[in-house]
Amino acid sequence: MKTQHVVVVGGGLIGLSTAYALLRDGHRVTIIDRDRLGSGAAKGNAGELTPQQVGPLASPHTAKDIIRGVFTRTSYLSIEPLQLPRLALFGLGFLRASGATRSARGAAALAQFSGEILPSLQRMAADGIDVSGGGDGYLMTSSVEAELQAAHASYRRRAEKGWGEAPGAILRGTQLADQEPALASGVAAGFMLPGEFSLDPITFVESLIAHLKTNGAEIREGLTAERLGDGASVVCRAFDGSKTTIRGDKLVLAAGAWTTPILRKSRVRSAPVVSGKGYSFTVPVEQMPNTLVHSMDRHCVAIPMHGRLRIVGMMEFGSHPEHLNRQKLEVLTRAASGVISGADWQNRTEEWVGARPMTADGMPLLGAIPNRHEVLVAAGHNMHGLSLGPVTGEVLADLVAGREPVVAGKPLDLRPFAINR
Ligand SMILES: Cc1cc2nc3c(=O)[nH]c(=O)nc-3n(C[C@H](O)[C@H](O)[C@H](O)COP(=O)(O)OP(=O)(O)OC[C@H]3O[C@@H](n4cnc5c(N)ncnc54)[C@H](O)[C@@H]3O)c2cc1C
User: Rounded to whole angstroms, how far apart are CA atoms 358 and 307?
Assistant: First the structure.
């Protein structure tokens, strides 16, 4: 295979995973980041890799939530009213994607990756990347009976199609308390999803960066990509305001929630990627949960991570991706206090906000820009950039090499992920 110089714009979960797969293929790689590598949504997230749960956010159920999100400040999902004009097109696209047929089509498109999420991570682990800190199996909980039954049935159906492992039996009362003694008393029921995995994204990202450096990646931090140049080049601005053009044989644009402005400035028409902010913090607990606990009705996740408990949740569409809204941390704390007992909620540390790169239909943008085969986009991985990072990197390496991407033994249908859909 011909060795190429590939410029990767964005050193987040997708850019780093892509750089990893490209180096493994023997290419020369330059990674550009406007800040430090891993400074976007890469490290403060929930650390979940979810063959079962990888799917679009838009569904008949969340359509109601997105409308409610405009009017309430205490919901897990919120939209800043002032941002409504800017988000109108995205909102309409989201509502369109929420219909039963379209959301099922979206689920099938993303399920193409399900069987390769953990194997691609294991290939990284075999190469020395640190995937520790979490473990196998999630406890899914809900006190809303209809929601619990619907989720259980949906995971059973997915497993029958080969999209992840089947859920365990529904647990209640002492069975539930035995499974997870750290649950708050109001949690009525739950079931295990044994095939999901979690890790500590801080140690994962740091070891991935160390691996890339050891294996010869060129790192250019503090360079903001402004627009594409000609061929496989990108025009960047440094901290001191000076401009520089970085050029390769191929270019991969992986700037997460910040991707759309770069494409717009480059006059490339694309499905918009908008920021859906999420929050996390660490909290001291009397008793660490045995596994990750995902509360479906309270919309939050409690994750044991290298001996500390991280709480994650919220979806806030609106203002600047970097802005931490303290009110949202309070809403998340209230939600989590109904899930986990014995936590010292006043002593939160590592408070963090991150921007999920959201698309209206939940599909990432993957592939070459039309008529510019030397420029590829890998962005818009929604809530699944860690799950999909390692396999996305392998798909991008295939595309750079001119190979047809094969995922879990089948040719990948890239049409749902077209840049200008
Ligand atoms: C609260 C929360 C919890 C989450 N939990 C999970 C989870 O459990 N599992 C999961 O799979 N996913 C999860 N996600 C989603 C996941 O974090 C994202 O999908 C993922 O980070 C997207 O990767 P990315 O590389 O596209 O973007 P990022 O990781 O955000 O990286 C983008 C990078 O691009 C850089 N950049 C931006 N603009 C420019 C520019 N102009 N020039 C150069 N560089 C630029 C940024 O500095 C950044 O380093 C969660 C997200 C949040 C917020």
Answer: 31
